[in-house]
Amino acid sequence: MTVFVWQKNIEIIMETFNNKEYKKFFIVSGGRCLSGHSMVQSLLAQYPQNNISVDLYPNILTAEEAQDVVQQAKMNDAVIIHTMVCADIRQTLSEACRANNIPEFDYMGPLANYIENDLGMKSISEPGLYRKSNEKYFDRISAIEYTLGADDGVNPENLREADIILTGVSRAGKTPLSIYMSMLGWRVANVPLVLGIDPPRQLFEVDPKRVFGLKISQVQLTSHRMKRLVGINNESNTSYVDKRMINDEIRYADRIFEKGGFTVINVSNKPIESSSNEIIEMITNRFDYSDQKTTSIY
């Protein structure tokens, strides 16, 4: 029965494709479209020259919303790809696609029908249930993605989305500390402070209680920078490790910390775990996260 349904769907789809060219995909879901989007992008990656646009239609929970999406697809000559776990909405969507001659790919229906009809199990039809049951895992992935995209002052317009913002001079340890905390589920941005260059204005527009200035001794900072220069074979860059220049940078950073009213954390000779624990303790005391974050990366 399942094979027949798939075969019939494919015949209808191919017949429609022969008459019209479709270059837009609508991914429809009762949840957040993550599964469907991932599967479609995995397939499209095999066609690097494709010019297919992909639009997401999440949280489709009623028959009326399903009908609206079908009408949008009809107006845009789009293909509908759906991962509906609710059988009634899935049926409504499929019937509307057939009635409007819209190509449709049902990622859930055939397997759901097999589980229910052949294996005798009953679905609870709750969209997003897998994500809810693995919420902490997905939050950690989201936090890591945000942190990587907000490293070294990139995308300052997104600073308001950060749980924690680190700032300090070059080689103060902002990036490794950011990545470590992101693995615990924290969205961390870091902003470098460079002598003679004003920080982005957004740094002073966010809640200062979320911003932590990393203070490091001149001796340790010089050591870190020397190792960096050796690692990139650029030992001739003497200004980067000049004692007077480094002291000027540290004083400049101190002025920025004071101007912004930021919390100063001394990271000199301190392991990342200790600095992370210190910051997380303060941020959880200042804001209510209701135990959403983890306390260990393991």
In words, what does this structure look like?
This protein is α/β, with parallel strands linked by helices. It has two domains: 2-133, Rossmann fold (3-Layer(aba) Sandwich); 135-286, Rossmann fold. It is built from eleven helices and eight strands. It has helices spanning 2-19, 34-44, 63-76, 87-99, 109-118, 129-133, 135-149, 174-182, 218-231, 243-260, 272-286; strands at 24-28, 53-57, 79-82, 104-106, 164-168, 188-192, 211-215, 263-266. The strands form two sheets. Strands 2-1-3-4 form a four-stranded parallel β-sheet, with helices on one face. Helix 4 links the parallel strand 3 and strand 4. Helix 8 packs across helix 11 (272-286). The longest helix is centred in the first third of the chain and has 18 residues, at 2-19. The protein starts with a helix and ends in a 12-residue tail after the last helix. Residues 1-19 have low confidence and may be disordered.
Secondary structure topology:
Blueprint: H1 2-19, E1 24-28, H2 34-44, E2 53-57, H3 63-76, E3 79-82, H4 87-99, E4 104-106, H5 109-118, H6 129-133, H7 135-149, E5 164-168, H8 174-182, E6 188-192, E7 211-215, H9 218-231, H10 243-260, E8 263-266, H11 272-286
Parallel strand pairs: 1-2, 1-3, 3-4, 5-6, 5-7, 7-8
Helix content: 40-55%
Strand proportion, as a percent range, falls in: 5-15%
Number of helices: 11
CATH architecture of the largest domain: 3-Layer(aba) Sandwich
DSSP strand count: 8
Instruction: State the oligomer.
Output: single chain
The average pLDDT is 87
Biggest beta sheet attributes: 4 strands, parallel
Count of domain modules: 2
Please write the CATH class name of the largest domain.
Alpha Beta
Instruction: Outline the low-pLDDT stretches.
Output: 1-19
What is the SS-derived class?
alpha/beta
Principal-axis shape equals elongated
Gap between N and C termini: 46 Å
If you consult CATH, what is the topology of the largest domain?
Answer: Rossmann fold
- The radius of gyration over CA amounts to 26 Å
Order of helices and strands: HEHEHEHEHHHEHEEHHEH
Strand line-up across the major sheet: 2-1-3-4
